[in-house]
Amino acid sequence: MSLLELSAVEKRFGATVALAGVDLGLDAGEVHALIGENGAGKSTLLNILAGAYPPDGGAMRLSGEPYAPRGPADARRLGIAHIHQELSLCLDLSVAENILMGAEPAEYGWIARERLVRRAAGLLEDFGSDSIDPRSRTGDLPLAQQQIVEICRALAWNARVLLMDEPTSPLQRPQVERLFGLIRRLRDRGIAVLYVSHFLEEIREIADRCTVLRDGKSVGSAPISSVSDRDLIARMVGREVEAVYEREARPRGAPGNVLLEVRELAAPPLLKSASLELRAGEILGIAGLIGSGRTELVRCLFGLSHPAAGRIRLRGRELPLSGLGSSRQISRGVGYLSEDRKGEGLALRLSIADNVTMSRLSSCARAGWIALDRQKEQAEGVMRRLRVRAPGARAAVFRLSGGNQQKVALGRLLHQDPDVLLLDEPARGIDISSKAEIYREIEGLAARGKAILMVSSYLPELLALCDSIAVMTRGRLSPALAASQWTPDEIMRVAVGGAA
C-alpha cells in the first residue's frame, strides 16, 4: 500500500479546469517526480496536498486513511510539508523565526530564543549552509539563500511527505548537489518526496519514478529509468518535440556596431570591476556563482543600483552614473528582466494586459487615456507569440502558473521593444517545450539586431544560445570569449576563482 494515494482528483477555479482527474501513488522512501508543461496542474496538485485548496472531486488517502486537510497547518500536522516555487517567507523576520514558524520551542509560554537559534542553525548545517546566520533578517538574504531557508522550514516539521516545487531554480550546482544529498538521506529515512522540476537531467539524477500531467490529467506513471527523454516530452505535450535548442540550425550574421560599452564598473561590495562590449545582434552570456555580482551588474546597467565608479556608454554616448534611473534607461531603449518575477518582475494583482503594456503605455493610448481595446489586442498578440495559457488578457497574473507568469514578464519586454535587453535568468521555471519557444524568441531578437546581455545559472543554456560568454568571479568579470571556447568545466573552474 502506498503512503499517499490519489484517485481521480479534480479541481476547478470558476470556468477554469485545473485538474481533470489525477491518479498518483507515492511510496515511503521514494522520490517521485511530477512532470508536465506550465499550466498542466502540477502546482495546483501540490497546493491541494498541502491543504491550501480543497479538491472538487476524487479521493486522497494517507497511510490508508482518508486525507482531507482543513488547511496548511493541518497538513503539516499530518506530516505533509510544502516547499513552494514562489517563496512564502516573512522577510522582516529572522531566518530562525522563519524556519521554526509554528514549531517554536517555548518555556513558560515564551519563545526560547536561544533554543530557536540553535535548532535553526542545526538545520542549516545539515543542508551545508552554516554560513547563513540564523539571527539575520531573511529579507536581506539573496534569493538562493531564501530558498534554503524555505527548505529548512519544511524539514523542521519532521515531515513524512515532502512536496518540492522547483526547489533548485535559484540554486547553483554545488547547492543543488547538497540538496540532492539531503533528499537521498531523507529517502533513506523513509520520507517520501514528490518532486516537481522542468530539468529532465535533474529528475533522472534524483527521482525513482515519475508521473506525467497533461491538461490537468495524469497520463502515465513509470520508473524513470524505463522511459527516454523523448518519450517523456511527448507525453507532456501530446506530441513529439524536437531538441530544446540546436544552435547550429539557426546561424546568424556577424554582430554589428557596439551598442553598450562598460569599463571598470564597480558597485561594492558585490560588484568590484566589470568591463564588456555588447554589439547589435549579439547574445553575451554572463556565468558565475550566485552572489558573485552578476545580478548587481545588470541592475547597475538598468539604473536600479548605483555604481560607485566606472563608465557606461550607450550608442557611443557616455551616461552619467549619478543619473541612470530605470525610467530613463527605458526611454533610452534598454529593457530589463528581473530574476525575481514575484518581487520585481510583475505586478501580480494587475491583469496580463496591464503587465505586458506598462513599460510602453503610449502604444495603446488615445489623448492621454489608455485605449482598453487596443491594450487588450496588443496583449493578446504577445500571449499568442509566447503561448501564454490563461483565460484571457484581463486575467490577473497571480492566477497563472509560475511558468506562464515568466512568459508575461518576458512579454512586457517584447512589447517594450528595446534595443538592449538585460535578461537575468530568462527561462527560470519554464517547462521544456516553452524553453524552446523562449530560446527561439531570444535568438529571433538577436537576428533582428537587438543586443542581449543574458545572466544564467544553467550552463547548457549559455553554451547553446550565446555568441560569447564572460564569467563573474567574486565581483570581477572575466574577458568574454566565444562560446565555442568554453566548456562547462572551464566555466565552473573560472567561477570558483581560476584564471580564464
Structure description:
The protein is about 35% helix and about 25% strand. The protein is globular and about 70 Å long. With about 500 residues, the protein is of the alpha/beta class. The protein has 2 domains: about 5-235, P-loop containing nucleotide triphosphate hydrolases (Rossmann fold, 3-Layer(aba) Sandwich); about 260-495, P-loop containing nucleotide triphosphate hydrolases (Rossmann fold, 3-Layer(aba) Sandwich), CATH 3.40.50. It has 17 helices and 25 strands. Helix 13 (about 370-385) packs across helix 14 (about 400-415).
Write the layout of secondary structure elements.
Layout: E1 4-13, E2 16-26, E3 31-36, H1 42-49, E4 57-62, E5 65-66, H2 72-77, E6 80-83, H3 95-99, E7 106-107, E8 110-111, H4 113-126, H5 143-155, E9 161-165, H6 173-188, E10 192-196, H7 200-206, E11 209-214, E12 217-223, H8 229-237, E13 258-267, E14 271-279, E15 283-288, H9 294-302, E16 309-314, E17 317-319, H10 326-331, E18 334-337, H11 341-345, H12 352-357, E19 365-366, E20 369-370, H13 372-386, H14 402-416, E21 420-424, H15 432-447, E22 451-455, H16 459-465, E23 468-473, E24 476-477, E25 481-482, H17 488-495
Parallel strand pairs: 3-10, 3-11, 6-9, 9-10, 15-22, 15-23, 18-21, 21-22
Antiparallel strand pairs: 1-2, 1-4, 4-5, 7-8, 11-12, 13-14, 13-16, 16-17, 19-20, 23-24, 23-25
Helix pairs in contact: 13-14
